[in-house]
Structure formats: structure tokens, C-alpha cells
Amino acid sequence: MKKIKSNMFQNIKTDLPASMVVFLIALPLSLGISLASGAPMKAGIIAAAIGGIIVGLLSGAPLQVSGPAAGLSVMVLGFIQKFGFEATCVITIIAGLTQVLFGFLGAAQLAFIISPAVIHAMLAGIGILIALGQVHVLLGFGPKSSALLNIASYPDSISHVNISAAALGLFSLAVLLCWNKWGQRKIKFIPGSLVAVVTGTLLSSFLNADVPHVQLGSQLFDGIGSLKLGDASILQLVLGGMGLALVASAESLLCAVATDKLHSGERVNLGKELIAQGVGNTISGILGGLPITGVIVRSSANISAGAKSKMSAVLHGVWILVFAVFFAPMLNQIPLAVLAALLIYTGVKLVKIAEVKKLMVFQESFVYFVTLAGVVFVNLLWGIGIGFALATVMMITKMAKFQFQSETIGNMVRVNISGNLTFFAVPRLLNKLNGLPRRSEVHMSLNVDHLDHAVIEAMHDWKQSYESDGGKVVKASLFDLWMDLKSADFIHQKPRPKYFEAQSPVISDITL
Predict the structure, then answer these.
(1) What is the mean pLDDT of residues 3-20?
(2) Which residues does 134 contact at the CB level (< 8 Å), separation at least 6?
(3) Which domain holds residue 280?
(4) How many CB atoms within 10 Å of residue 1?
(5) In sequence order, what are the residues at sequence separation of 6 or more whose Cβ sits closer than 8 angstroms to the Cβ of residue 492?
(6) Residue 442, H or E segment
(7) Per-position DSSP letters for 394-436, written without gaps between them
(8) 116/247 same-domain check
(9) Can you tell me the mean pLDDT for 172-178?
(10) Domain total in the chain
């Protein structure tokens, strides 16, 4: 125990100032994410404190900072609108327990089977949904329940705009943009989000503007023991918890891997990190907080500020808790329109054009845009599911690709087949073979990267049918080719063997 404490505090000179930087970033963002989620303001504060203190202490990613994340706000908003906030806390508890189970079962690595196109589209879709909804808040109203409703309601909100709220929101957005472009270069430890919130709040107080404000409440943890199921069934809550666990786990683990690339210290333990996230979500749900994930913005700021150990994340959670307990009246002075400006900026930043260009190079942009449309116009889980299914279909399509070249010279046909010959390719392969001239002498060469049993059987049956019709097939043994390919795969030899009939005077039949 003494050794653990010593390790945690030996970098306090660097971790302490880093924790203050992360605290200044996390505090306004936590309030904003509560707003975007349709949850009580204190829910974001509770989640930020637990994400720092509890997840920080248990974390398998020492420099990752966890807390409420914009990536979950749309999902949480849907739960709250459908089931109510108390039932959403139950869903968060179920998600946390599911994550702990996933962690103990060693399922952390499964997060990487999700296509990057789906992940980036999910984040972009969430960003668009946040921005669409928060425009209404900036105008002095509340967000609608869907993207289409948000868009359709703009004329009404604009015609009844709260001038004071809109002016404060636009002013705060301008401050945020200017600070991030120019001020951040000179004073790196003060984030633009804090500058925008402080200046917007001061302007609101000076003008005595009649606009909606943050309502944090006097008792931070008065939601303990008041969990209710509402009208939701146990099955609905369990399914919601499992869906939340999958999305939160993927976001946290991908963030942990990204964070791991930004420093040269202790390496990430994904299984341990997933368990820490699960414990954090369980406790957050019990105390009335929002769901928690690893957050890349806070994590990268933590590393940039010089953090060396998990103590920085822990201390940032302590500062948030202390500030919420002793300085709640100050937080209640923040106009919602100011937070809306911060969220609109955050939402737009989630749409990364550079990643879209990269996906276009890898021919995965179709998956990206279909997933994006699903997330924005259907819902988050359906969008992810559609994207994952489409990515899987495209992967299968790629696995079925092969090249078939044929040349007819008199009564002789030369055929060259290259690429992947798997059972996915059998229908197209047979179609090509059946299209060859009848009663000819087919000289077949194979230069394939993969060959499976289904193809061997299919080509064997085609050969018998072709020769029974008066033709002749000259080729190498497919079984020998399969064995050579298997051996080459096993020992990772390059290049793989090539089979050309001209080099093989012995004509072998298919033997299995």
C-alpha cells in the first residue's frame, strides 16, 4: 500500500497543475453535456467527479480522463425522453455491470472489430444531432426529440427568438472561436470553453438578461435511493443498458488506445480499463449521474499539460466535486444559451473532414455516409447496427473478389485465376467457368492468395461436367496448391507459390 501511494504522489509537481487544466475544461463541458442529454445539471457534475476519482483510481489507462461525453448525450436524451431520468440511471447501472462482466471475460479487444468508418460516422452523427438541437437552446427554447423535428421547428424558434439569449450565445461562440484561434497560443493552460462561459456569464449579469440559467440544485447527491423504473419494463432497461455498454465501451477503449499513442509512460491495460469504466458507470447511476466514458479532449489536454500518472485525473475529479459543493451559486449564474454555444462548437468539431477524406481513399465512404444518415435520421443504435452490417457485407464482397482472365487460341483456352477463392466466390467462379467455350482444351493456371474446400469441390464438379461434355481440363493439383498456401500462411512466407500448367508436366486430378 505504501508503495502504491508513493507511486501515485511521486509526480505530484506535474500532476497537480495538469489536473487544474483538465478541471477547467471538464467543468463547463460537463454542464453542457447535461444540457444536451436533457438531464439535471448536477448529473454531469456527478459523472465528472466519479469519472475522475473512481475511474481514475482503477484505470488501466493511466493518463486517460473519464467523465460525461458528448458521444453518449444523444443516446441518453433518447432514454430520458422515453423512460425518464430515474429509469435512465437504472440503465446506466446495468451498462456499468455489463462492462465489468465484459472486462472479466476479456472482451475488451472486441471493440476493435468495429469499422473506423462506423465509429467516425457515429461521432459525426452525434455532433450533428447536438448542434441541431442546441441551436434551439441558443435561441431561447428547448431541443426537439429528433433531427427532422429540430429542422422543421427552426422557423418557429427564429420568429419567437429570445434576443438576449441569442445575443449571449452568439457572443460566447465568437469568443470561443477567437480564443481557440489566437488566445490559446499565448495562454495555453486556459481553455477556450472556460473563457467563453465566463465572459458570457459576466455579460449576462451586466445586462441583467432575462434568459434561462443553469439550475444545479442545493443537494448534489439527493438522487441516491430514488431510482425508479417508471413505465419501462425490465427487458427494455436491460436492452438499453447493453446497448449503452457497447457504445460506451467502444468509445472508452478507442480513446484509451488513442491516448496511449500520445505518451511514452505506462502502457494501457484494456481489460482493466473496461472494468474501471464499468465500476464508474455503476456508481454514477446509483448516485444520479450521467454515463461515463473516456474522453479524448480531456485526455489529450491532460497529457499536453504534463501529467505523468493517474493522480492528475483523480485530482481533477476532486476539484470538480469541491467546486460543485462550495460554489454552486456561481454555476447557477451561467446562461443555458452560453452552454448551447459551447455544445454547438463541440458538435461541429465531431465532424472530422480529414477522416472522411481518408475513408474515401480506402473506399469506405459509403459505409460512413449510410451510418451517418442512420444515426441522424433513425437513432444511434440503429445507425451503428446498419453501419456494422453494411461494413460486414462489404468485407464479404471484398473476400469474394478474384480476377478471371481467359484467352482462346483455336481449340485451346488459357485461363488464369488470381485473388481470393473462398466459398463467397463460388457462384461467380462457376458462372465464369460455365461461360468457357464447350469441348475445348482448357489450360488453367492459378495464382491465388486463398483457397478453401468449397472452391475445390466446385471446380472438381465443374471439371467432371466439362469433360463429360467432350472437353479437357489441364491443371495442377488443387489439393497440392491448397497445402502449399496453407504452409505459406502458417510461416508467413512471401511470395506465395504460383501454379502454371506449363511448368508442370504431370497432370494431377483433384485429390482430397
Answers:
(1) 73
(2) 35, 36, 143, 340, 341, 343, 344, 347
(3) 11-390
(4) 5
(5) none
(6) strand 441-451
(7) HHHHHHT-EEEEEEEETTEEEEEEEEEE-GGGHHHHHHHHHTS
(8) yes
(9) 94
(10) 2
pLDDT at 485: 61
The reply to whether 3 falls in a domain is no
Same domain, residue pair 105 and 60: yes
Which residue has 467432371 as its cell numbers? 464
Average pLDDT over the chain reads: 85
pLDDT, one tens digit per residue, over 269-282 is 999 999 999 999 99
pLDDT given at position 487:
62
User: Which residues does residue 441 pair with via DSSP β-bridges, in sequence order?
Assistant: 412, 472
Place of cell 476532486: 318
Residue 508 lies in a domain: no
Contact in structure between 374 and 382 (CB atoms under 8 Å): yes
β-bridge partners, 445 = 416
User: Across the strands, what pairs with 404?
Assistant: 417
Answer with the residue of higher pLDDT: 456 or 99.
Answer: 99
In angstroms, the CA 313 to CA 105 distance is 26
pLDDT tens for each residue of 26-61: 999 999 999 999 999 999 999 999 999 999 999 999
User: Rounded to whole angstroms, how far apart are CA atoms 150 and 143?
Assistant: 7
| pLDDT tens-digit map of 273-308 | 999 999 999 999 999 999 999 988 889 888 888 888
371 Cβ contact list (under 8 Å, min separation 6): 117, 118, 121, 122, 125, 383, 384, 386, 387, 390
Residue 419 gets the label, from left (phi > 0), alpha (psi -120 to 50) or beta, of left
Cell of residue 247, nine digits: 457504445
Q: pLDDT at position 503, please?
A: 37
pLDDT at 473: 87
Cell numbers placing 35: 444540457
Please, what is the Cα angle at 112 between 110 and 113, to 5 degrees?
Answer: 75
Q: For residue 5, is it within any domain?
A: no
Dump the DSSP string for 196-255: HHHHHHHHHHHHT----B----S-TTTTTT----TT--HHHHHHHHHHHHHHHHHHHHHH
- The candidate with the shortest Cα–Cα distance to 63, out of 315, 279, 302, 264, is 302
Residue 53 burial (CB count, 10 A): 20
End-to-end CA distance of the chain: 62
Cell digits for 364? 469506405
CA pair distance 468, 466, nearest whole angstrom? 6
CATH of the domain at 450: 3.30.750.24
